Amino acid sequence: GGSGGGFVLHQTFATTAAVDVAHLATGRDHLLVFANLLSIENNLASPSLSETLLLTYTAPSACGAQPDKIRIWRPDEKPGYKRVGDILKVCAVGDTCTLTQHANLIREGAWLAEPTGYTRLNATDLVNIWRPLAPAGFECLGEVATVTATAPATSLIRCVDVGMLRKLPIAENRRWSNVCAGNAPCPGGLCWSAVELPGSTTFAYVTEQDLEADQAPQRYQLVARPDPTIESYVARGASPVYKYNASSTRFDFVQNIQTLGVADLEAFSISEAIPGTNVGRTRNFLAVANRQLQAPAVLSGPELFDAVPVLLEWTGGSFSEIQRFTDAASIAEDPCDALPPGRCACADEDAAARSVLDLFGDCASYAPGELNAGFCREDGACALCGVSCAEECRPECVGATQEEYERRGDNAWSTTAKLRGAAGMRYFTHGGMHFLAIAQNLCDLFASASSCAAAHRTHPHSAVLQWDGARFGKLLAGDPADPSVAGSAAQHAFALRIPAGAALSFSFVELPGPAAAPTPIPLAIAFSLSKGVLPYRWAFSSVTHLQGVVAVAVGAPHVVWAVSDVSRSIV
Questions:
Q1: What's the whole-model pTM score?
Q2: Contact status, residue 160 vs residue 222, Cβ threshold 8 Å
């Protein structure tokens, strides 16, 4: 503070997209930890300097169409950069068929990994096409070609961190059959499509059935904004830790914590007896809400919110990891609960309408102002054309769109073994026991309530975990430090999940009770982007010593908790 009673700048810290800061007082040390959501990488992609021609093949003239010629090249790597696939070009037989641009290579780093193997997609006397298999958390962009039936080496290419990619329909340039060319039929359904991916040039092998499907085949592609040849955002980052130096009155850098799309930090201390002794100790922790594999925004499905939160302990002058929250399952809320009655079923189901009804056009033709407007009832289209027939016979669908229905379908999920979408972590104590409330949602960070609702993502229930002396997990049937229940506390443990919608954070308070009953009233308060402020009475003591599956009526003015094993439905 300055002499006038205000604040003056004391020290600045270098951060990148910092979303939170935590202070931890350990008794001797004062620590500051900054949560960096992402890192910025320059020149992540760079053009190859040359390519090696693998093969040239011309379809036989007996196909009865003007034959095409294909050539496949392999980009030559350069120091510090790796290839992600081979290049295919289709051209007329008389063309020279040369490349007009180089393929982009990807700079080496934690965002690259070798494939675990290959799947052969076709086999001919001249060419074998192989699709690389990606390890968890990565995707492979392009196919690889060989002239023999021997699988390529896994060191040949690299797969890319899924956080740097998005799944998009592939752009079909020219199809080429491995037998015939031009408009000739594709025997055996074997056709190829040359595909250019943003930031890279490679090809995807697709079948005739893929190309004729209602939806275009999709492949992972490099996120194009910002341009990967200039600047890229990577969710894998480093969150710095600083320790206060009393001599210089400044904070000195101590270490970097490797984080992944981190959204929140929670620093706290737990005092306990050393096992087998009467000696007490204080342990100092940092809970890190790793949240998303892509930053700053998630561009693909709910699985990109599956970054694993961790618990760190301050020992020996640094933080070390003692727990990864890999066994706390997540359960989806029903997305229809947030909509007006009947709205969730509002859709134009063209495929079903074509198979069941003899309509005079697709559902969209029955919308106001279109050719068949006003004939929904007469043609029997009300049930299957809810969006287009809303004003005529489906009043619950007025204002609904086909896009929101499809988004809900694209984002649908039910359960996952991971702690999905951790957005906020709050430590609290009650009755001498220690808990960690984890707010979960699938909104983009800093999204408004309206923009989150417009995304139509299915949010998980939020979790409450209990400390058992070594780690946080299911709620125990009693205090794990109480010898009288030590044998049964874990045996009758249960999972607690709270349907708080797009939960942002939790708080825990104890409020005064009425004069006639002065016992404080404990409240766990959820702050939700979709449901507002939700106070729940913390009635944990009412479920101690119960056997097996339990049901808890909390008596709060909101949702009643029904608690069972986490593999079952929890509402």
A1: 0.83
A2: yes
Mean pLDDT, to the nearest integer, of 315-343?
91
Task: Supply the pLDDT for residue 476.
Answer: 83
Peptide bond just before 340 cis, omega within 30 deg: no
Write the CA distances from 428 to 284, 414, 425, 444, 489, integer angstroms: 14, 29, 10, 26, 19
Q: What is the arrangement of strands in the sheet containing 144-146, beginning at the earlier edge strand?
A: 117-123, 128-133, 144-146
Do β-strands 462-467 and 472-473 pair in parallel, antiparallel, or remain unpaired? antiparallel
Q: Return the minimum-mean-pLDDT range out of 47-61, 112-126, 414-428.
A: 47-61
Distance between alpha carbon 224 and the CA centroid of its chain, in Å? 19
Q: Under a CB-based contact definition with an 8 Å cutoff, are residues 120 and 127 in contact? A: no
Return the HEC string of 281-337. Answer: EEEEEEEEEECCCCCCCCCCCHHHHCCCCEEEEEECCEEEEEEECCCCCEEECCHHH
Identify whether the C-beta of residue 152 lies closer than 8 Å to the C-beta of residue 144.
yes
Angstrom distance (rounded) from CA 157 to CA 485: 56
Backbone phi and psi for residue 505, each to the nearest 5 degrees, phi listed first: -165, 170
Q: Is residue 388 exposed (0-12), middle (13-18) or buried (19+ Cβ within 10 Å)? A: buried
CB 245 within 8 A of CB 2: no
Contact 130, 144 (CB under 8 A): yes
Span 127-152, average pLDDT: 91
Handedness of CA 444, 449, 451, 455 (dihedral sign): positive
The region of weakest confidence among 127-141, 467-481, 535-549 is 535-549
CA-based nearest residue to 550, from 560, 564, 567, 570: 564
Give the chain's count of helices (H) and strands (E): 7, 37
CA nearest neighbour of 505 among 469, 538, 529: 529
| Dihedral sign (CA 158, 162, 164, 167) | positive
Distances (CA, A) of 227 to 44, 223, 230, 354, 516: 9, 8, 5, 43, 67
d(CA 133, CA 365): 44
Amino acid at 316: G
